[in-house]
Amino acid sequence: MKEDYLALETRKKIYDLIANSPGLHKRQIARQLNMSLSTIDYHLHYMEKRAIITSKQDGKYKRYFIAEKVSPVDKRILSILRQETPRKIVIFLIENPRAIHKEICQHIKKAPSTISFHLKKLIEAGIIEEISLGKEKAYIVKNVEKVVDLLISYKSTFLDKAVDKFVNAWAGFGKR
Amino acid sequence: MEELLLFSSIVITGLSFLLFFISMISYIRMKETKLFFISIAFLIFFIKGFVAIVSDLTNYLILFDLIIIVLLYVAAAKK
Predict the structure, then answer these.
(1) Which helix or strand (DSSP H or E) is residue A55 part of?
(2) Which pLDDT tens digit goes with each residue over A79-118?
């Protein structure tokens, strides 16, 4: 599972570079990110196969672009993953499947009511699911591959940070 | 003194609009009813500020406060 997250970071770097400079070819991407051609090749192939990016043959170069095909379900998942706290929870659960509420609170460093609020939203959106682990309730990411793919394409903006702070401030409102 | 009151009303109205905007985006993204009530409370706050600036209906402003407090109570009581 740790490998998933390491690959996610590399793919996100490649994705962001292509988003900022569409039409780059493999060698340019490798040069700009200071990565080996084989690594770039592997991740480009992975993202192209999953329709995260597309390519166009231009003479002897194959140029890469962002594929703008996001389904309504994926848009709903992305709108939640754009917020910092749910995103941190999901990444923590990818790295630590079957983590319990207490472990998530300790890692994310937010109030238990805030974590409960976000866990409920993530369950409703079908991103994670709750499983019984003896007396405790544990959480796992339902479709790790899909969530990792979506995490590659999220873009954090100033508004996302403002919304995140607002939701965290009001999430526990009225809870005892 | 009147200028200070007008300035305060404009700042409050501007900030309440900003909070309404952020809370409405939060509601759209999180689909949480509690956030909907909070965003409406900020909208009423904004309308109250606007009314206070442009009209003389100061006696009726307490009605806006009543709506705001009810909305915040509903948001807090919402499970």
Answers:
(1) strand A53-58
(2) 788 788 888 999 899 888 889 999 999 998 888 888 998 9
Nearest CA to CA, how far is B25 from chain A (Å)? 7
Residue ranges making up the domain that contains A83? 72-171
Residue A144 lies in a domain: yes
Is position A176 within any domain?
Answer: no
Q: Chain B interface residues facing chain A, Cβ-Cβ under 8 Å?
A: 19, 22-23, 25-26, 28-32, 34-35, 38, 75-78
Instruction: Tell me the whole-structure pTM to 2 decimals.
Output: 0.65
Q: In the structure encoding, which two tokens stand for residue B34, read together? A: 């509690």
Chain B contact for A79, CB < 8 A? yes
Residue closest to A168 by CA, chosen among A122, A110, A97:
A110
Same domain, A28 and A44: yes
Place of tokens 């442009």: B54
Domain co-membership, A29 together with A85:
no
